[in-house]
């Protein structure tokens, strides 16, 4: 079990982008969910509004599948959770898996969340701090607070590293 890096209350992962070291790439992926209540799906999960959320509608685990068209370098996953608003709908145990497709996903992180409030930064790096290269990320909600059945997730962001080029301007690391 790893403990995610928690930003100070209210800290926005867009501050990461402002440093010029990472870029949000969620729009390059195809997103799917294991289930959702009508009007509480992928659009709400990606709308940059902390008041909206995805709500699952089925049995656990609840899954968010993020698939890229080509192998992609990913460095950080950011999830916004709000226990005060969502109570028993708030995830308490999350598994993050990566792979080429649904059939070969490997868990790279398992998180225990205790009444989270704000952005949770999950490094998608190996033991040497090297970013992960993958076609697919799956976020599995394994348990909720108070043994809740369905889950709420308010926002998810995915970041790729940006590196300095030889002429001094930043560029996205090329895909191979």
UniProtKB/TrEMBL annotation:
GO-annotated biological processes: anaphase-promoting complex-dependent catabolic process; cell division; protein K11-linked ubiquitination
Any GO CC annotation of this UniProt entry: anaphase-promoting complex
The protein's name in its UniProt record: Anaphase-promoting complex subunit 10
SUPFAM superfamilies on file: Galactose-binding domain-like
Keywords: Cell cycle, Cell division, Mitosis, Ubl conjugation pathway
Function: Component of the anaphase promoting complex/cyclosome (APC/C), a cell cycle-regulated E3 ubiquitin ligase that controls progression through mitosis and the G1 phase of the cell cycle. The APC/C complex acts by mediating ubiquitination and subsequent degradation of target proteins: it mainly mediates the formation of 'Lys-11'-linked polyubiquitin chains and, to a lower extent, the formation of 'Lys-48'- and 'Lys-63'-linked polyubiquitin chains. The APC/C complex catalyzes assembly of branched 'Lys-11'-/'Lys-48'-linked branched ubiquitin chains on target proteins.
Regions annotated as coiled coil: none
Keyword Zinc attached: no
Similarity-based family: Belongs to the APC10 family.
Signal peptide residues on this chain, from the entry's feature table: none
Superkingdom to which the source organism belongs: Eukaryota
Record-linked CDD domains: APC10
InterPro entries documented for this protein: APC10/Doc1 (IPR016901), APC_su10/DOC_dom (IPR004939), Galactose-bd-like_sf (IPR008979)
Species in which this protein is naturally found: Delphinapterus leucas (Beluga whale)
Gene that this sequence comes from: ANAPC10
